[in-house]
Write the structure tokens for this entry.
Amino acid sequence: MTCLRLLLGDQLNAGHAWFGERRDDVVYVLMEVRSETDYVRHHAQKVLGIFAAMRRFAEALVQGGHRVEYLRIGEPRNRHSFAANLDWLIPELQATRLERMEADEWRVEQALIDAFAASGLPGRVVSAGHFLLERDEAAARFARKVPRMEFFYRDLRRRHRILLDADGGPLGGRWNYDAENRAKWPGDPPAPSWPWQQHDLRALWDEITAAGVQTLGEPSAQSFGWPLTRREARAWLADFIAQRLAHFGRYQDAISGRSATLFHAGLSFALNLKLLHPREVIDAALAAYESGRADLAATEGFVRQILGWREFIRGIYWARMPGYAALNALQAKRALPAWFWSADTRMACLRAAIGQSLTLGYAHHIQRLMLTGNFALLAGCDPDEVDRWYLGIYVDAFEWVELPNTRGMSQFADGGIVGSKPYSGSAAYIQRQSDHCQGCHYRHTLRHGERACPFNSLYWHFHARHQPTLGRNPRLGMTYRSWERMSVAERAATLAQAEHYLARIDQL
Ligand code: FAD
Ligand code: SF4
């Protein structure tokens, strides 16, 4: 009697109940398959990082006395999909039973349901034991009406007794310190660099390219930076708590050409692979607060991201898939500009955000939301293309978290499920939050005319063309009142400038 337990590349949770006991009748199966490398073009560091972390995880299992079957990307026996590999592994290992953890992505879950059914063997699916809300509960909660994130988050804080006072109210008397968390970064305090690792992954990179996998961005295989084991991820977490948490909240909405990473945690890759548990990340932040190393606003601002946004986004995904992936409420159809893949644009803010995405596989939240996402929204780019770009380019991109953030929060293609209004901004916002405008080819103060910042005319063009629907949104009342107050000539010049830019979008 042999049980095969399938482990996916984003299920590297050493704390899972499965690994608590060593059993001779269990074989853990991990596969590097083309069905996963090819469903979208991924950043080179994403493919490298996931495979390298999988290999280290498998080695640790073997060292712990577990039986492991590992299929490498270049092996001739590898048939490159979960189902095709199970087909020959089952007789080869004389398996009589299949087990797996719940997949986080809908596409993978469906593929595994089919593969398990086709095997004809008895099977079992267990929780991945990673999130604070089980997948079914999250999906059921959001099935009919999606709560606003704020109320969902307060509920989880109460349930997990996080940052509460003795009466069960929010510590400090407020649930939300967002208003204190929007400062522009003046350059001081200095933003400490991240604890990049120096892994030599050249041999793995050779295997990946020899297998024909197509990627984008810099592999940086000679000194690969992202954490690949639980130990490295724990060290990265400790570094964040010691060096950056205290300033995280205050500068979380800032953008700077002087620091690509500012005071952000850089933990999403390790979290999404499950090298870290969200609860241990939250507990580390709470311990820093209790020992006086971070104040309440910084701690709450950070806890909100993990306990609030991360769980909320996953709930929406599981409640609304598969239909969610096809939503296009604003009927956006334009192709993404070519410079999304090269960073070759004169727009300084976008050149920096896309450039660092290509070199690091990372941009922080406000760069994703208010630079690249905002531009695609204002220009009316097709959410299918926008999704593919985000799903490929970031090392932390897995559909359960990428899709609601992109299609919902950033492109408003869900018509208001994630957010109650589009996250749109003109150059005034970018100038306020960043230091990019002063060195830019374009002028952030101009709406039209030579060198007018494209964000300005596109911002008004977006609101004007969607006035029949968005004009009814009470949260956009002020925006539309400002538009109406402009003279007819000013409005016409602004719209003409936007049309001019849209016709030359690849040359911006
Ligand atoms: P920090 O800013 O330091 O935040 C700490 C942690 O909070 C993150 O590691 C992450 O786990 C969590 N978090 C913060 N915001 C969110 C959010 N909106 N949704 C879910 N978790 C959040 N995150 C991904 O993990 N994968 C994605 O593919 C992804 N795609 C995105 C696409 C768009 C268009 C936008 C606007 C956001 C996206 N995010 C995604 C959310 C967020 O931008 C990243 O989690 C964050 O930038 C990761 O960097 P960090 O670890 O330094 O985060
Ligand atoms: Fe970006 Fe416009 Fe500022 Fe240039 S002027 S950095 S394009 S917002």
In short: The chain has a mean pLDDT of 96. The CA atoms of residues 287 and 398 lie 29 Å apart. The longest strand covers residues 95-101.
